[in-house]
Amino acid sequence: MFIHTSCCMRWCLFAGILFFVLPMLVSAAAVAPCTSQATPWLTLRISAGAMSSAADRTTIVRIHSDGCTDLHRPKFLRASGDYRLGLRADEIAALRTQVANDALRGFDERQVRAAIDAKQHPQGAAQAALKPQFAGQPQRLAVMDGDSYELSWNDAGVARSARWVGLSGYAQAYPDVAALQAFDKVAASLQALATRSDAVQISAGAP
Fold first, then answer.
1. Domain that holds residue 187
2. Contacts of 115 (CB under 8 A, 6+ apart)
3. Are residues 82 and 21 in the same domain?
4. Which tops the pLDDT comparison, 58 or 141?
5. How many CB atoms lie within 10 A of CB 164?
């Protein structure tokens, strides 16, 4: 009985150590694969349009080619701070497929706005009477205090980027504009990463 009790006590002690140490080892393993010094492959920045530029208002997602992902949740979001996440190979492959979309690779803001204008109807007589300076011009969607979306990525050594204010609103309003749809799809995928529950916090947000 004495030997049996001693073994049980030793096992309980060992189990207790594992209980406290194992979570730290798991967290360390989750963070370790990241190499934050490396240039990211894909970066998304979403700046809240309704907030001052001096505030911590930008959600940032940086993905490295090895799947290491750095996240920044601004102060106004729940659980703000800096996080790190490791993506699986299939998740990286899915993102690469989205980014390889030709409409996104050739994103040009002026061309996108021209495509939007081509789908609009000129102002009616009543509207033209109220604002004659805009007579004959197309009606445009106005997104007040829209968030600014900035996407940048490395495309086989070629630096590419896309930027749009009020992206989700425009994408919903103009489903036939391929460049906006491709941009919005990638942005939504990356934005979802910023709220992943398996991300490991590496620093808390400022109080």
1. 35-204
2. 174, 177, 179
3. no
4. 58
5. 25
- Residue 148 dihedral angles phi and psi, to the nearest 5°: -95, 125
Task: Determine how many CB atoms are found less than 10 A away from the CB of residue 29.
Answer: 11
Nearest by Cα to 149 from 54, 49, 34: 49
> Within this chain, do residues 81 and 27 fall inside the same structural domain, yes or no?
no
CB contact set of 154 (below 8 Å; sequence gap of 6+): 39, 41, 42, 160
Task: Scan for tokens 């934050």, then name that residue.
Answer: 36
Q: In terms of C-beta density within 10 A (0-12 exposed, 13-18 middle, 19 or more buried), how is residue 163 classed? A: middle
Say which DSSP state 51 is in: S
pLDDT for the residue numbered 139: 59
Grouping H, G, I as helix, E, B as strand and the rest as coil, residue 149 is strand
Tokens for 143, please give them.
């997104």
Q: Are residue 25 and residue 59 in the same domain, yes or no? A: no
pLDDT tens-digit readout, 150-183: 999 999 999 999 999 999 999 999 999 999 999 9
User: What's the CATH code of the domain at 62?
Assistant: 3.30.1560.10
